[in-house]
Design brief:
This protein has 378 residues and is of the alpha/beta class. The chain has 13 helices and 5 strands. The longest helix is centred in the first third of the chain and has 24 residues.
Length: 378
């Protein structure tokens, strides 16, 4: 239950939890294990699961992987590694095989070393057929180095070309898989989409969702200094005010039955949801609420409302494609290419009054992505 519901181990020591268990089984309620006991039990189970997974992967010929790095709310970095394979019964499986705490710099070489330790731990390095990552420069570099190493029969490859790294970090090593906590620092600059497949021979493919985000991001960059930016910024200020003012939120909910959605900086499609909700609830009554609260400056002009409406029409297909490709099962490169082609057709046929620069930038960006996908094996 603790693992399945993602609950903290300290739950077993809470009095309310103990009382609940006693209601179910009075005898067991007196014997609930302590947190340390649960922790040791989970670690023992982890070893058993690892051995079981090793056995399964040993009898699997070809394995695809995906890996990603991200930061928690506590600003701690992690790397997750998944394997994807087909069973003997032709059933698709996807399993998390490692979840690493990453400290320090994240150079391409350091990412590669940590990744290879994971593959070696499960004895699947020779079975790795394809890897999916985002298009951060250090991820691309990691697989360029991997390809160079395969050509030079695994001779060490210098990471000197990563000019964003300091010289005093070049001698750092990655620990063994069990203590892999010294990955070098991540420089999360995204490359231009034209550069994504600079190393065509590597077995890395780009993450479809991440590159959809890059296409949308390129569009917003092209509109960064104009009325589109102003309209979206004002929409965001309106949402922030209403969500911070209990009275304004209460009046809005009484009128519309809805609350405004705040943008999440790590989810680009949350901006679409925010704009769509504002556009849905905005009315003369909302303007009267703003007047009553002394916030007339937050009222949206007719042109701004039209821009927001066009933005929703433009970006909803990108939101839908992202949702499709984020599915736990069934989402693969065979789904990426059709979705990207549909998005290209959407951009080619999109009629706009206010978003011309944004649409043109997105057309260029998605064309580059499609060109890179011509090298992908399905």
């Amino acid at each position: 239950m603790l693992v399945g519901c993602n609950l903290p181990l300290s739950l077993v020591e809470k009095e309310d939890f103990k009382e609940f268990v006693e209601l179910l089984d009075k005898d067991f309620g007196q014997k609930i294990p302590a947190r340390r006991t649960v922790s040791r039990s989970l670690l023992d189970n982890l070893k058993a699961v690892e051995e079981e997974l090793k056995e399964i992967l040993e009898h699997t010929d070809d394995i695809a992987t995906s890996l990603d790095l991200w930061s928690s709310k506590a600003l701690e970095s992690y790397m997750g590694v998944l394997v994807h394979y087909i069973t003997e019964d032709w059933e698709y499986k996807s399993r998390v095989i490692d979840f690493l705490r990453c400290k320090g710099r994240h150079t391409g070489l350091a990412i590669l070393e940590a990744y290879r330790h994971v593959l070696q731990f499960y004895n699947i390095e020779s079975k790795e057929w394809k890897s999916i990552t985002d298009s951060a420069s250090n991820m691309i570099k990691a697989f360029e180095i991997k390809f160079e190493m395969s050509l030079s029969e695994n001779k060490p490859v210098s990471d000197d070309e990563e000019d964003s790294e300091d010289d005093d970090d070049k001698g750092e090593d990655i620990q063994e898989k069990a203590s892999c906590n010294d990955i070098n620092e991540l420089e999360c600059e995204d490359l231009n989409l034209d550069e994504l497949f600079e190393c065509e021979e590597s077995n890395r493919d780009p993450c479809g969702c991440h590159n959809i985000q890059l296409v949308v991001g390129d569009g917003f960059k092209a509109a960064a200094q104009g009325p589109v930016h102003t309209s979206v910024a004002k929409c965001g200020k309106l949402v922030c005010y209403v969500r911070k003012s209990l009275r304004a939120a209460e009046l809005l909910k009484e009128e519309t039955g809805l609350v405004l959605i705040k943008k999440n900086d790590t989810r680009w499609n949350s901006e679409v949801k925010m704009i769509r909700r504002v556009r849905k609830v905005y009315s003369p009554h909302v303007e009267s609420i703003l007047d009553k609260m002394g916030q007339s400056a937050l009222k949206l002009r007719p042109t701004q409302l039209k821009i927001l409406e066009e933005l929703v029409d433009l970006l909803e297909p990108f939101e839908h494609a992202t949702d499709q490709l984020q599915q736990d099962k069934g989402a693969g490169m065979a789904q990426v290419i059709p979705n990207i082609n549909v998005l290209k057709l959407h951009l080619d046929s999109f009629e706009t009054v206010h978003l011309t620069a944004m649409v043109n930038a997105m057309k260029v960006s998605i064309h580059s992505f499609l060109r890179s996908l011509s090298n992908v094996d399905l």
